[in-house]
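Readers of this paper often ask what the protein records in our data store actually look like. Nothing more is needed to write down the fold, since each code stands for a local backbone conformation. Below, we set out a record of this kind in full and without editing:
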Amino acid sequence: MTNKVKKILIVVANPLSRHDNRAMTINELCAAFCEGINYSNIEIDYIDLYKEDFDPVYNPDTKDTQTIEYQIRIRKADMIAIFHPVWWGLMPAILKGFCDKVFQSGFAYQYQKGKLIPLLDNKKALVVSISKESKWKNKLVYGNILELFWKRTIFQTCGIRSKQITYYNLRKVDDEKISQWKNEIRTFGENISLKKTIAEMI
């Protein structure tokens, strides 16, 4: 297994709204990350779940070609980077549906004689999210359910080593603070590009 990153699959789950002047912030963070990555020859694949009209409802009796396509694109990527807002302590339903349909048994993991076998243990993941709530409320009231969902429920099951970055208090921060967030994410992308490895970062 190599730690070199040759291809990154970016998944964005962020509906834009003219009624929310901060609705673009998660997309702007994604763009800053891509700017950092583009300092190198790392290939970027990009999925916008809303623009691609992804159907999050899982039907076991229906063959979903879009889901199969996404699984193929994950197979080809060394790293998955997910960008989403935080709703009710978790992610938008369209992204939860993506997890339900894409990270299926037989693709992301399997059981052999009752033992869990991860099938994506050669990959890494980054999750970047933005919450309108404070950090203390996400931890004390919501119990860090978002972090537990991504790290333990999804990525550990699949064998994916992951890092999660969450920004808080979107309602209250100013443009200077958002610029700071962008610079941090851009630098993260640059470090992946310059080091060609994420072993020290994730």
Remarks:
- The chain is about 40% helix and 20% strand.
